[in-house]
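B., you asked whether I could sanity-check this one before it goes into the benchmark set. Here's the sequence:
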Amino acid sequence: MGGGAFSLLTSHFKPTLEVVTILVLIALHVGASMLLSAFGLHRLYLAREYRRLVRRRFRRRAECAPEPWPSVTVQLPLYNERYVAERAIRALAALEYPKELLEVQVLDDSTDATSDVVARVVRELRNRGVRIHHMRRAVRTGFKAGALAEGLAKASGDLVAIFDADFIPYPDFLRRIVGEFDRADVGMVQARWSHINEDHSLLTKTQALQLDAHFTLEHGVRAAKGFFFNFNGTAGVWRKQAIRDAGGWQADTLTEDLDLSYRAQLRGWRFVYRDDVAVPAELPVEIAAYRQQQQRWAQGGAQSARKLLPIILRARLPRSIKREATWHLLTHFTYPLLAFVTLAGLAVGLTADSLAARWVLAVDGALLTFAMGSLGFFYGVTAEARGGRWGKRLLLVPAIMILGAGIALSQTMAVVRGLAGHRTPFRRTPKYDIAAATDQSWRTAAYRLPVARPALFEFLAGFAFLGAGALEAMRNNVLPSGLVLLFGVGFICVGGGSLMQALTRPSE
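And here's what the prediction gave me:
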């Protein structure tokens, strides 16, 4: 009898529980959509502020020779960079600066033939009178942060310029930058990244537009309004005292550059952004390399948010600085929100009645339309700032959205790992000395990434999303959600593209 009564109760309340579950899903879906829209509004704010305050300030500044010229140590951290190491070292040796005040440190943690290349080039340059040091560590403790810290301990310069292996500074880079340090409170000067292989493929064109927006709009507005912004790990110059005062390089996040930047600014050091000084660099040509780079930035960003946000929110800072720092440090949280909105909307569409499905479809449609509009304006202003036409580069906005959807789940996992405090190795992005659009030498190069398993999962997941969208449409007699279609196409493009590239690459 007890069992019969229990069955009667559960059968009586089952419809109510289903309704409650669906209502909760809809409420969470709407809430997450509103948060995503808030990030979109913030993009519009940055674009508006750039057009209102910043764009007229970005002109080439006259060189201002400091008195006296400061001593500079240039650091080049390397790990297995056989294709670009020599190019980078020669570019640093060619910097136009008083020789007695300039030294170069090649911080070489390589485990392959890169070290032989470095030793040969360093020996040649030293014989020509260049103050250059080839520094090797027995153990790669702390990865890039550890290498920079060890080099800093032996650096003779008052200023420290840092470049990754795929960056090629122009000879006048230091002469145009060091005058900023005449102000005693300036701790770091960041230059803009430019791109030597932007026209190589749709992938590199998309990355170039994203990075142009990050530097010109985000850095430009934050620097102009006195907000915190970050050193990007390369193409920048630090005051050595600022690094030490902030606690030095620390390896407890995968974005040691972001971490140190905020710690230094919390100590009162002022940062300067120079949009008129560009340093060319190589963009990843492989989807797998792009994904790995984005995962590192997402996980490191979440680690830095977990570490720094409580300190920032407790600090005696203007509310405007705290607010912008929060937006900045939580940037990668858009991926979990996007994934949740899509999955929650799909769950409602597959389980609820037609009315609930249509409500979710309307919210998704509004969100997708707003996202297209805000991204279009954001990247349109970026194109205008870089001297291009809106129309040509706006054609890349759908590609940016498809690419973002295709990596959304892997980015979500990276953010979760960062929030959970999970420690993973620093995985560098492979570089192949690619410049020309027709250069396909990377297809037979070393440093192959293990892409097959995640790529195959994403490729199959894309068809699963398209199938679920079709099922949702048939069940409720409505068009499938635009977000579900976006995820399906994104997974197929990213996963399928990775698989195609993997089939053309030999194992090392």
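One thing to flag: Residues 264 and 434 are 35 Å apart (CA to CA). Otherwise nothing jumped out at me.
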